[in-house]
């Protein structure tokens, strides 16, 4: 097999990550062949065109199934919405695990799987277990840093897996991110990611509440954001992702583009769901997490158009109440 690198899932995050990875590999001449796959054919075609326009003559193939990606690649990165899509890509008839089972053990042993999706810890552990049974390596490596971090190549990767698989993945992850943290064994990266997003999901709502309260008290939104960002209420949800247009002077949060781009409200609801589920399983009380989940749910129910918009649009829902 050739030493190609495959990327499956070229959405808002995956397309930026794959672009950084492939362009850096090209610059270092470490790889000459790339494979991409997405359920939406247009996403894979657009990605291929973008890469070719910057690096003419690059050897990049679009494949229709994860099975084909595995057959030609030694490193496979997946960046999918959540658990159902990861199960499909890894376990379906044309998926990764059946393909691995049909390869010779010498071929599977050198193959590394990096799943950067934010998904259920239990599902991730089960899939990683099945992959490693074939002799291949697999890590969970969800990310923090959003679309801007993916574009800039400054993501934080939170890794769960063995020391050996972490070391094998490190040079690949360094081409897409700045901080690569080994959080523990399989599933530990996801555990850390879900805890972080629990904080973020709650904070984005309370910043929306505070900005709305300030407005109703007659405060200028730029003045209030300036106070919060230099005081004890300071957090990313206010200083980078502030939900009120014109409240930040030198940054361009999604609210400036009618909440387009960024991290979809539907995906934040998914993460709140992952947190509350794992909270139940591990007997951890999450009263604020449960309340935040209800608020994102109601926001999408009342305003279905917010589902695909950045989750800071929860402010729009609060304003409409
Ligand atoms: P997205 O919906 O934009 O991208 C997902 C991509 O996967 C899409 O292109 C979709 O067509 C593709 N896909 C779905 N099913 C597939 C299948 N069976 N086979 C092949 N491709 C398939 O989502 P995103 O915003 O890029 O997020 C991806 C993951 O990263 C999610 O788990 C999310 O929670 C996490 N995340 C997102 C952000 C963010 O700011 N967007 C930040 C951190 C983490």
From TrEMBL:
Superkingdom per UniProt: Eukaryota
Keywords: Branched-chain amino acid catabolism, NAD, Oxidoreductase
Pathway: Amino-acid degradation; L-valine degradation
PANTHER family: 3-HYDROXYISOBUTYRATE DEHYDROGENASE, MITOCHONDRIAL, 3-HYDROXYISOBUTYRATE DEHYDROGENASE-RELATED
E.C. number(s) listed in UniProt: 1.1.1.31
Native source species: Boletus reticuloceps
Domain (3-hydroxyisobutyrate dehydrogenase-like NAD-binding) ranges: 187-316
Top EC class, one word: oxidoreductase
Record-annotated active site: 193
Swiss-Prot/TrEMBL catalytic activity: 3-hydroxy-2-methylpropanoate + NAD(+) = 2-methyl-3-oxopropanoate + NADH + H(+)
Any one annotated GO CC term: mitochondrion
InterPro entries reported in the protein's UniProt record: 3-OH-isobutyrate_DH-rel_CS (IPR002204), 6-PGluconate_DH-like_C_sf (IPR008927), 6PGD_dom2 (IPR013328), 6PGDH_NADP-bd (IPR006115), HIBADH-like_NADP-bd (IPR029154), HIBADH-related (IPR015815), NAD(P)-bd_dom_sf (IPR036291)
A GO molecular-function descriptor: NADP binding
Similarity remark: Belongs to the HIBADH-related family. 3-hydroxyisobutyrate dehydrogenase subfamily.
GO terms under biological process: L-valine catabolic process
Residues in 6-phosphogluconate dehydrogenase NADP-binding domain copies: 6-184
Lineage summary: Eukaryota, Fungi, Dikarya, Basidiomycota, Agaricomycotina
Name of the protein: 3-hydroxyisobutyrate dehydrogenase
């Amino acid at each position: 097999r050739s030493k190609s690198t495959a990327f499956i899932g070229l959405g808002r995050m995956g397309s930026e990550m794959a672009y950084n990875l492939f362009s850096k590999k090209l610059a270092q001449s470490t790889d000459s062949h790339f494979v991409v796959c997405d359920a939406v054919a247009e996403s894979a075609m657009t990605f291929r065109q973008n890469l070719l326009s910057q690096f003419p003559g690059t050897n990049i193939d679009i494949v229709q199934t994860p099975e084909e990606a595995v057959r030609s690649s030694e490193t496979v990165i997946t960046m999918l919405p959540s658990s159902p899509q990861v199960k499909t890509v890894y376990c379906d008839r044309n998926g990764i695990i059946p393909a691995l089972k049909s390869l010779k053990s010498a071929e599977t042993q050198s193959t590394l799987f990096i799943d950067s999706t934010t998904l259920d810890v239990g599902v991730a552990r089960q899939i990683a277990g099945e992959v490693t049974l074939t002799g291949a390596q697999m890590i969970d490596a969800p990310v923090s840093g959003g679309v801007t971090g993916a574009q800039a190549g400054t993501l934080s990767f939170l890794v769960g897996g063995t020391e050996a698989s972490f070391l094998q993945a490190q040079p690949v992850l360094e081409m897409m991110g700045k901080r690569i943290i080994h959080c523990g064994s399989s599933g530990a990266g996801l555990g850390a990611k879900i805890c972080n997003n629990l904080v973020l999901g709650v904070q984005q709502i309370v910043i929306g509440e505070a900005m709305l309260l300030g407005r109703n008290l007659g405060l200028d939104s730029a003045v209030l954001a300036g106070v919060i960002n230099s005081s004890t209420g300071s957090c990313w949800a206010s200083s980078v992702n502030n939900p009120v247009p014109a409240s930040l002077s030198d940054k361009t949060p999604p609210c400036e583009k009618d909440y387009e781009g960024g991290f979809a409200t539907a995906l934040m609801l998914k993460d709140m769901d992952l947190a509350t589920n794992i909270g139940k399983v591990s007997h951890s009380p999450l009263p604020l997490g449960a309340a935040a989940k209800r608020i994102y749910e109601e926001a999408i129910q009342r305003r279905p158009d917010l589902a695909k918009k950045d989750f800071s649009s929860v402010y729009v829902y609060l304003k409409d109440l």
